[in-house]
Design brief:
four-stranded mixed β-sheet, Glutaredoxin, alpha+beta, 3 helices
């Protein structure tokens, strides 16, 4: 099963809203708070060139690859990323 990783920051309203809506729809995800996972977040921003939140990583079934979805680049609002997540799990 694909794992959903959500990169978030405490106090980020969009991050909170995304996590709340995913929970309401019983969509499992792992919350990665960037201040507690700075090295991983640096790797994400280095590879993508973006540091916008909430950033979503949908890991492929093989657990070694996946797709990163970044606000304003890949989705415009929370509802759009939820639909992307649903179509990929």
């Amino acid at each position: 099963m694909k794992q959903i990783l959500i990169f978030t920051l405490n106090g980020c309203l969009q991050c909170r809203d995304l996590k709340m809506k995913l929970t309401e729809q019983s969509i499992s995800f792992k919350d990665i708070e960037i201040t507690k996972n700075q090295e991983l977040w640096k790797q994400v921003t280095s590879q993508t060139g973006y540091d916008l939140l909430p950033t979503v990583f949908i890991q492929n079934d093989d657990n070694s690859t996946g797709t990163v979805y970044i606000p304003d680049r890949d989705f415009q609002d929370i509802n759009e990323i939820i639909e992307i997540i649903k179509s990929n799990i």
